[in-house]
Specification:
The chain is of the alpha+beta class. 45% of the residues lie in helices and 18% in strands. The protein has eight helices and eight strands, in the order βααββαββαβααββαα. Strands 1, 2, 3, 4, 5 and 6 form a six-stranded mixed beta sheet that branches. A two-stranded antiparallel ribbon has the order 7-8. The radius of gyration is 18 Å and the shape is globular. This is Guanylate cyclase domain-containing protein. It comes from Paraburkholderia phytofirmans.
Length: 251
């Protein structure tokens, strides 16, 4: 009897929103660049991740990593946040779900219960441009951080998740602790570094998000697309309020 094709993995299923409209608006180059970026990110060995796998097809991207000692959860969530922000910088909006458990992901072939969990979260529950996260994945992420770095890591680890108005937990990409290479310009200070405050990071991310929304304004008749835009705007306004930043950053 053959051994099981599965390993214990955590997986993200990401859907590129407005894929059809991007094609119809002659923005194929952005679609190609988005999918190419995903593959290049995998090749870049994000956080030294030899077990990470990425498959891109049509309007979907699947990323997975071996759970291992638990760091796979941390790496996969931060890589997903990084990739979402890279796509937002290009004006591409995404929606997705995270799953974990049995999965086969090798040489572009991906299947298993964990993928079904991620896909169903994306297709049946996410609705808005957010990456839904199961409670078990959140707990595993926080558990690894606390076990490795101590209890002081609990709050930062938990801050990359957000409970939405409908009770769903999603990846809080606007959190200053979520991974993204998007910052405001800040000159070196004499004898000092270029550290950024949480407010500066959020301000830079707000500007990037607003730019992406402006590039993807749907026709007035597309009520469903406008609902997604309004969700993102509300999410941004609420986060700015929590961090004490002015709503004008979204203008």
């Amino acid at each position: 009897m053959d051994s099981s094709p599965y390993t214990n993995r955590v997986v993200a299923f990401i859907d590129i929103l407005g894929f059809k409209e991007l094609i119809l608006r002659d923005r194929e180059s952005e679609v190609f660049a988005a999918l190419k970026l995903a593959k290049e990110s995998e090749a870049g060995q994000f956080h030294n991740a030899p077990k990470m796998r990425l498959t891109a097809f049509s309007d979907s991207i699947v990323i997975s990593d071996e759970v291992g000692d638990g760091f796979g959860y941390v790496r996969l969530l931060h890589f997903t946040s990084y990739l979402v922000w890279q796509l937002l910088e290009m004006g591409v909006l995404t929606r997705g779900g995270i799953g974990h458990g049995r999965l086969h992901h090798e040489n572009g072939i991906v299947f298993g219960p964990a993928l079904i969990e991620a896909y169903e979260l994306e297709s049946k529950q996410a609705i808005y441009p957010r990456i839904l996260v199961p409670e078990g994945v959140r707990d595993a992420h926080i558990g690894w951080e606390v076990a490795t770095r101590g209890d002081s890591a609990r709050a930062p680890a938990d801050s990359i998740f957000r409970r939405d108005f409908d009770g769903n937990l999603h990846l809080h990409i606007l959190s200053p602790w979520a991974h993204a290479n998007i910052y405001s310009k800040k000159p070196h200070t004499p004898g000092g570094g270029t550290g950024y405050s949480g407010q500066e990071i959020l301000g830079a991310r707000a500007a990037c998000l607003v730019g992406a929304l402006k590039r993807n304004q749907p026709p007035a008749a597309h009520a469903s697309a406008w609902t997604k835009h309004r969700w993102f705007q509300n999410y941004l306004h609420e986060t700015l309020r929590i961090y004490g930043l002015p709503a004008q950053l979204t203008d």
